[in-house]
Amino acid sequence: MLNRQGRPTAAGSAEAAETAGTFTGNRALIQEEALSFEIGRYDTTGVDLDEPEDFAPRLGALAREGEIGIPGLSEPETMRHFVKLSQKNYGIDTGLFPLGSCTMKHNARLNEKMARLPGFSDVHPLQPVSTVPGALALMNELSHYLVTLTGMTTVALSPKAGAHGELCGMMAIKAAIVAKGEDETRDVVLVPESAHGTNPATAALLGFKVREVPAAEDGTVRVEAVRELLGPEVAAIMLTNPNTCGLFEPQIVEIAQALHEVGAYFYCDGANFNAIVGKARPGDLGVDAMHINLHKTFSTPHGGGGPGSGPVVLSERLAAFAPVPFVTAGADGSLTLVEHEGDAPDGSPFGRITAFHGQMGMYVRALSYMLSHGADGMKQASEDAVLNANYIRAGLVDLMSLPFPDHPSMHEVLFDDEWLKDTGVSTLDFAKAMIDEGYHPMTMYFPLVVHGAMLIEPTESESKASLDLFVAALRDLAMAAKAGETARFSGAPYHAPRRRLDETRAARQPILRWTPPQPVREAAE
């Protein structure tokens, strides 16, 4: 038996009674909840439906003959079911969410209120453009801010997420290469070994060959390593800055110059733009294309209940190839939504990357964030994100090891597992023990260039008090690991609604359909 700290305790003690099971399986406010298939009934529904009048079905052989097989719950049961399920989840409204390279920051409620205003919340992509001048004005204003903050020429708002924006940027690069008649020769994309996994996948999807750029011992990419790989066959590089080790690339300008000298393009993965907003403009660094995760940088929720948003800013070299649809402003200030390639006033759009323009709710939230912060506020947000990451670094560096100690951290701090050597505790064990302390684990085992990586990003929205508690909790865990208290870690989490799962098996052999359990046959007497 284990006590609340995850340490063994004698059976029959007061602490054993505290952790004993209950008849219902509930533990006070931590309540069990079965699947709706298990508790639902096929003769119950929370909505009264009238019997349909006679009609002639038009489905022919496709008409359903059996029951639909979805159980029903009454309205109170439905409410309780989903509330109980929601209480088993961890979100940014629950506590500090330290996922590295994901930027789980607070979503300001002002932004949510603005996104729910009539005219924004109910706008439909198929309604006449003449009825949505306010939406066009908002997209134009958002585009202005994104171009200004990045120092680029234009922006494509339509991509639905970071990886989608990444695809958009690389499609613009490919279109530029085709326009120059070099598509038969420029077929190689350089990708640093510390890159996000979507980078090589995107390049391969578009038919490029991927060539890996090794990282230096300090976790950065050196211009010398890039120059060794350059040639007339290189189309672009896909570099993240700040990179996934939480470090600013010190030679990014030299790398961009080297690429441009051989006619190649610089795609920057903008996942970590929230670390440099107001401090450095990617366009000034030589970047040709960069996606921006609105949820990471400008506090829109991850997904937002639907498609997310990953706008792509383009330099003058690529602006002509921006995809449709996009908003243009006339000399008199009038706004036009260009929906077809042939209607583009200038340039040669590479086509369309999505059916409609994008997720209006994300645009509203992002612009609300920008207007409420102002230029100085967005700059301070970046500074606070970097400050908070280095504050955590300073609070843990004497107990946990840094793979790249010679560089200050940017918005996230990266630890490795060297400090866990000979403790019998792994990175996974440590992360699972964090759940018992009420925290979502940090990003584990990424980036791959660091063994046993633990990547922590506190974001700028955490207070000093919450950071102090987080650091104290991790220090307590670290000291317990070094003291040999392996029982606290080996089976963690002990206090979560579910114990440790076989996540590898769940990913490789997912069970996606519920089937009724087989009845237990009684033994013959």
Automatic annotation (TrEMBL):
Lineage: Bacteria, Pseudomonadati, Pseudomonadota, Alphaproteobacteria, Hyphomicrobiales
Reactions this protein catalyses: N(6)-[(R)-lipoyl]-L-lysyl-[glycine-cleavage complex H protein] + glycine + H(+) = N(6)-[(R)-S(8)-aminomethyldihydrolipoyl]-L-lysyl-[glycine-cleavage complex H protein] + CO2
InterPro entries linked: Aminotrans_V_dom, GDC-P_C, GDC_P, PyrdxlP-dep_Trfase, PyrdxlP-dep_Trfase_major, PyrdxlP-dep_Trfase_small
Listed name of the protein: glycine dehydrogenase (aminomethyl-transferring)
NCBIfam families for this protein: PRK04366.1 (NF003346)
Organism encoding this protein: Salinarimonas ramus
Its EC number(s): 1.4.4.2
Superkingdom of this protein's organism: Bacteria
Gene3D superfamilies: 6.20.440.10, Aspartate Aminotransferase, domain 1, Type I PLP-dependent aspartate aminotransferase-like (Major domain)
Domain Aminotransferase class V: 184-303
Molecular function terms from GO: glycine binding; glycine dehydrogenase (decarboxylating) activity; pyridoxal phosphate binding
Start and end residues of each Glycine dehydrogenase C-terminal domain: 381-480
